[in-house]
Amino acid sequence: MRLAPNTAADRVTARYVPTGSTEQRHDDAQAVVYSYTSVRGVPYAIGYAGTAYRSSFHHRFADEARRARFVSDWLEAQRARVARRQVRQAEQKASTHELQCGDIVYSSWGYEQTNVDFFQVVQVVSAKSVKLRQVSQKTVETGFMCGTTRPLKDQFCEDAATLLCRAEGTSIRNVGGRYKRSAAKWDGRDVACSWYA
């Protein structure tokens, strides 16, 4: 299996473009469509969205009218997708957080067990970011290898690094680590957890 190139320019350059096809660029939809006809006279079209290396579609059609209708519908969907992304980006750019120094946020994660990490806001850097440090927690076993846990405010873990994190509303987008984990503001109630051995 051939891997896709890393950069956007390389991905666009490495795309499959049928010989003799007609290129139609649609900047408003951030898409390009290549239309061509096979040696047997069958109409085909291949479409790419954004800077994708792989095509969004590559179809044959019964006639030119069906190809034109399909491509038109696909482009309309692409325009709507671009518009939604622009709205989402504008909202994210305008959003601020409501966290204050001393607030606790937690991240619940795991596959076969439920791990919970608590972090305390140690500095409000800006309207969009805060600094966090992990705090210790008190866990009470309530069943077989499961229980509830709560943070111990101001009792920072010894090896806890200070993390600069993007904040939005009362949540953190990513508290770092190998896997991207979000965190939400702790509401003061015990949090369920589980473990093995």
What does this structure look like?
This protein is α+β, with helices and mostly antiparallel strands and 197 residues long. It has 2 domains: 8-94, no CATH class; 104-194, no CATH class. Helices cover 19% and strands 41% of the residues. It is built from 2 helices and 12 strands; from the N terminus they run αββββαββββββββ. The strands form 2 sheets. A 6-stranded antiparallel beta barrel has the order 5-6-7-9-10-11. It has a 4-stranded antiparallel sheet with strand order 1-2-3-4, with helices on one face. The two termini are 40 Å apart.
Helix content bin:
10-25%
> How many domains is the backbone divided into?
2
Number of DSSP strand runs = 12
- Shape assignment: elongated
Order of SSEs, N→C? HEEEEHEEEEEEEE
Count of DSSP-assigned helices: 2
Assembly annotation: single chain
Strand arrangement, major sheet: 5-6-7-9-10-11
Low-pLDDT sequence parts: none
Strand percent estimate: 35-45%
Radius of gyration: 25 Å
Q: Kindly, what is the distance between the CA atoms of the first and last residues, rounded to a whole number of angstroms? A: 40 Å
Mean pLDDT: 91
- The structure class reads alpha+beta
Tell me about the biggest sheet?
6 strands, antiparallel, barrel
